[in-house]
Design brief:
The chain has 468 residues and is an alpha/beta fold. Helix content is 40%, strand content 22%. It has two domains: 267 residues, Aldehyde Dehydrogenase, Chain A, domain 1, CATH 3.40.605; 185 residues, Aldehyde Dehydrogenase, Chain A, domain 2 (3-Layer(aba) Sandwich), CATH 3.40.309. Helix 1 packs across helix 7. 51% of the residues are buried.
Length: 468
């Protein structure tokens, strides 16, 4: 555990294993409630230091972090793959994205400012002068998942520090080693003691102790909707940002460039074994091009290499745990029993599910209406564009959606009518870069990430008025 800039041992430990071969990577301390309280106390002391740290110094720490990550890119990518099972080419991409995340945060740290208020706009304040300024909110509790163990941590830690806050981080128990390595790098980059504290353990214990601690000002959580709802219920008056799940969809119009859409849909549906909150799960295809798209798509799926995630041409490896692969297999069988067809895949070998494509599905099947979080995608026909938009909206989730069309009017119409946090034209909903506002509606969450927007969530405005 990292508390007040020192690595602490624990009374109990848990094992971190490689999901692909089951090998033991490391034992990590299991944090007690007292450990969490110590981490919060450390963060409370450091919050005052961070709030007083000039913007250029906060920026320099974040720039140094970005540079050090870049220097250790191969090492960190292999660590991500080792503990998460993510294909090495995507782990490398995640490291490259985290480099950008910290650099964007370094730039934004220098851009935090307020504005004057035209007090003479009111007859009651003609002789007054005022301005407001954002101030750091305090301690941020960051709770992160396994699927992006570096960049999703970066999307909470980097803006929190850029804003002048301190952080108590609880990474996933599946992937704590990447967070440990990041903390080592950040301390090397010059981060003050206590500005980042890391504790380990389950969500129902360590996670709840963080959420319920009255010294924290905000909880930033990425994970499942049920856990997100529980956090909202138990957080009290804290500010809460939730990045939750989805069953994201793309719409393929007759005028779409199919040969451009298919490789993007392959990546959207199957990268990281579908274990992404914006993984492509539903593809709505116009009836005029359904057979053509289906044929080309299945042809591309057949070429996907699944297996050892350390091999550079592997698209994906195992799911994070075999029980998750078993669950996905059960959902596939349930859909087939109700009339769905498996066009390709559906088989499970240990923790690996073959890339699976299904059709003839119904809206209330789990593989359609729930977040499958597995390498599975459904192909669904539609006749009218409006019908496709309605089907995309027919979900309790609303994170992002993709629309493939050359018609600007349909693109703008989808932007207006889709109830999601982001509409991606001529690409899949899985697209994300570090400086765009990212987040969802409905059960996909509240608040926005993307460095500039997360900083705003992590600050509060204060007004000063002079009576002249």
């Amino acid at each position: 555990m990292l508390i007040n800039g020192e690595w602490q041992e624990g009374r109990e430990y848990f094992e971190v294993r490689n999901p692909y071969d089951g090998s033991l990577l490391r034992k990590v301390p299991l944090s007690s409630k007292l450990d969490v309280e110590d981490a919060v106390l450390s963060a409370k002391k450091a919050a005052a230091i961070m709030a007083d740290l000039p913007a250029h110094k906060r920026s320099a720490i974040l720039t140094n972090t970005s540079r050090l990550i870049e220097n250790k890119k191969k090492e960190i990518a292999e660590l991500i793959t080792g503990e998460s099972g993510k294909a090495i080419k995507y782990s490398t991409g995640e490291v490259e994205r985290a480099i950008q995340t910290f650099q964007f945060a370094a730039e934004e740290a220098k851009q935090i400012h307020g504005e004057t208020v035209p007090m003479d706009a009111s007859p009651n304040s003609e002789k007054r002068f005022a301005f407001y300024q954002p101030f750091p909110i305090g301690i941020i509790g960051a709770i992160t998942p396994f699927n992006f163990p570096l960049n999703l941590v970066a999307h909470k830690v980097a803006p929190a520090l850029a804003a002048g806050n301190s952080v108590v981080l609880k990474p996933s128990s599946y992937t704590p080693l990447t967070s440990i390595r990041l903390a080592e790098i950040m301390m090397e980059a010059g981060l003050p003691k206590g500005a980042l504290n890391i504790v380990f353990g389950g969500g129902s214990t360590v996670g709840e102790w963080i959420v319920e601690n009255e010294n924290l000002a905000m909880i930033s959580f990425t994970g499942s909707p049920p856990v997100g709802k529980r956090i909202k219920e138990r957080a009290g008056m804290k500010r809460v940002a939730l990045e939750l799940g989805s069953n994201s969809a793309s719409v393929i119009e007759p005028d779409a460039d199919i040969d451009r859409a298919i490789p993007r849909c392959i990546i959207g549906a199957f990268s990281n074994a579908g274990q992404s909150c914006i993984s492509l799960q539903r593809i709505y295809i116009h009836e005029k091009i359904f057979d053509e798209f289906k044929g080309k798509f299945i042809g591309a799926v057949k070429k996907i290499k699944v297996g050892n995630p350390m091999e550079t041409d592997t698209e994906y490896g195992p799911m994070i745990e075999e029980k998750e692969a078993v669950r996905a297999e059960e959902w596939i069988k349930e859909a087939v029993d109700r009339g769905a067809k498996v066009l390709w895949g559906g088989e499970r070998k240990g923790g690996i599910i073959a890339p699976t494509v299904m059709t003839d599905v119904k809206r209330d099947m789990k593989v359609v209406c729930n977040e499958v979080f597995a390498p599975l995608v459904t192909l669904i026909q539609y006749r009218e564009f409006e019908d496709a938009l309605d089907m995309v909206n027919d979900s309790r989730y609303g994170l992002q959606a993709g629309i493939f069309t050359k018609d600007i009017h349909k693109a703008l119409d989808s932007f207006k009518k889709l109830h999601v946090g982001g509409v991606i034209i001529n690409d899949v909903p899985t697209f994300r870069v570090e400086h765009m506002p990212y987040g969802g509606v409905k059960e996909s969450g509240t608040g926005r990430e993307g460095v500039k927007f997360a900083i705003k969530e992590m600050m509060e405005l204060k007004l000063i008025v002079f009576n002249l």
